[in-house]
Amino acid sequence: EPSAACEVCEGAEEMTEPLKQCTAWLHAYFCEPARTASLPVPAFHHPLLQRDSFTRQVLWTLLRDVKFGEAVSYKQLADLAGNGRAARAVGGAMRSNPIPIIIPCHRVIRSSGQTGNYGGGNLMKEWLLLHEKLQKEKLA
């Protein structure tokens, strides 16, 4: 909704730099989506993103290659990540994503076009996809 106010939490001056980056990125995502491409991706220190694994490869591929307003199937993401036969493993990677929205697992859908599951609930996934679609149309 255009009338919805975007607010940054009080006490922003007390936040650490990584938290400030996350706050700025999320603010841009919801309020000024065109800016997300120009903002640095916040530093991720979650152990899952540090060790070499297919899950890490899938999550970084998703972050890097599937842009705002786009969707990709589990199979397509498996192909992009280097193992086209690993669509089920991609589903597992989406379930273990430690930072949804920033690593946009909501953009991964079924080959049939159905949205599939989402840790935040299917209504949230549908809302996020619609938010991106509407914002992308505004920019076009």
TrEMBL record:
Record's keyword annotation contains Phosphoprotein: yes
Lineage: Eukaryota, Metazoa, Chordata, Craniata, Vertebrata
Cofactor: Zn(2+)
Pfam families the record matches: DNA_binding_1 (PF01035)
Protein's GO biological process: DNA repair; methylation
Predominant localisation class: nucleus
Role this protein plays: Involved in the cellular defense against the biological effects of O6-methylguanine (O6-MeG) and O4-methylthymine (O4-MeT) in DNA. Repairs the methylated nucleobase in DNA by stoichiometrically transferring the methyl group to a cysteine residue in the enzyme. This is a suicide reaction: the enzyme is irreversibly inactivated.
Entries under SUPFAM superfamilies matching the protein: Methylated DNA-protein cysteine methyltransferase domain, Methylated DNA-protein cysteine methyltransferase, C-terminal domain
Residue ranges of domain Methylated-DNA-[protein]-cysteine S-methyltransferase DNA binding in the record: 56-133
EC number: 2.1.1.63
Any one cellular-component term (Gene Ontology): nucleoplasm
Catalyzed reactions per annotation: a 4-O-methyl-thymidine in DNA + L-cysteinyl-[protein] = a thymidine in DNA + S-methyl-L-cysteinyl-[protein]; a 6-O-methyl-2'-deoxyguanosine in DNA + L-cysteinyl-[protein] = S-methyl-L-cysteinyl-[protein] + a 2'-deoxyguanosine in DNA
Name the UniProt record assigns to this protein: Methylated-DNA--protein-cysteine methyltransferase
MF terms (GO), sorted A to Z: DNA binding; metal ion binding; methylated-DNA-[protein]-cysteine S-methyltransferase activity
Keywords: DNA damage, DNA repair, DNA-binding, Metal-binding, Methyltransferase, Nucleus, Phosphoprotein, Transferase, Zinc
